Amino acid sequence: MLEQLFGSRTRVKLLKLFLNSGEKRFYVRELTRVINERLNSVRRELANLEKFGLVKIVSPGQKKYYFLDNDFVLLNELKALFLKSRMLLEKRLISQLKNLKGLKYLALTGFFVQDDQQKTDLLIVGNISRAKLDKILKNLERSFDQEFRYTYFTIDEFNFRKEITDKFLYNILNGKKIVVIDKLINV
Prior knowledge:
four-stranded mixed β-sheet; elongated
């Protein structure tokens, strides 16, 4: 969606990175590795973003470092736009996952609640088709340009881990999360 609006996949990836990086500085080759794009395309889009005023350059030595200009006039609007875009993608993910037959519990953690300490981004419990789940998650990863860590338990596995007070499971259940579906009471 944002690629259509901004006209370039590379520019969108750079914008996401800079808008989420705070005051971090990046050099060009580092950016190509982080966003997985070609060097010439990254250079071209950095020049566009610098001309636009969103990115500044500092050269303490031979390398040029690029960073977000926190005084950019439209900074808050851009952040809001990217946040809304992300929310639409999350909403799409949730509706696709809700349609999986046999899904009993779905919680968004980690990436979705900005918790870098969490070891998973999605906790999924139920007796569902792994092939359908994998397909949905692959599409989601393409949309977000991000890999997701997910944990899938059958109902029996979930109950067993809960019974033995599995540390991994309890970190998720007691941690920061968004519970989307909870039909485990009847299980």
